[in-house]
Every structure is written in C-alpha cells, then in structure tokens.
Amino acid sequence: MDNRSSNQSRRRPQQGRKRFHDRGGPEWKGPLVDYKEVELLRKFMTASSKMMSRKRAGTSATEQRDIRRAIKRARFMALLPFTGA
Question: Collapsing DSSP states into helix, strand and coil, what is residue 57?
C-alpha cells in the first residue's frame, strides 16, 4: 500500500537550470557607457529602435542597466530616435 515508491518511479528526473554562455558581443566590455556615444548605443538597439534584450546583446545585468540608462538619456537629448521611423 505504499504509493510513494510507485509515484517516484513515474516522475521525471529534475532538470537543472539552463545557464547562458558568454558569447562575446560587441567590442565594449567596460562599466562606463556614455549617452553621447551614439554609434556604440546603436549596437544595442534593433532596426526599429528598440533596446535589445540582455540575452541577445550578450551583456551582464549591470552592463544592461548602464546601457538602458544611456539609451534613455540619448533619446531625451534627441541623439537617438524613440521609434525606427
């Protein structure tokens, strides 16, 4: 009457979390991103002027926050467009 052993045999083995590998990315690997470096910021944007995801851009969370902040400042200063049109 021990259902525990029969239930355990039917369960799938537990999968580990998938880790992302460092794929390089653009030539930039520093903590400082300036909103005035428009060409560098364009590397982290799509053709429709959207910010690339962290996974697609290949950056760490800290780098992504710095890039996001710089892109928003550049948009406010009219150095980058808000839309791709």
Answer: helix
CA 65 to chain centre: 9
Residue 78: pLDDT band with limits 50, 70, 90? very high
- CATH class for the region spanning 29-85: few secondary structures
- pLDDT tens readout for residues 5-43: 656 667 777 776 655 555 565 555 555 788 999 999 999
- The residue extents of the domains of the chain are 29-85
Which residue's entry shows tokens 């990315």?
25
Q: What are the two backbone dihedrals, phi and then psi, of residue 45, each rounded to the nearest 5 degrees?
A: -125, 150
CA–CA distance, 34 with 39 (Å, rounded to integer): 11
Q: Residue 85: how many CB atoms within 10 A of its CB?
A: 6
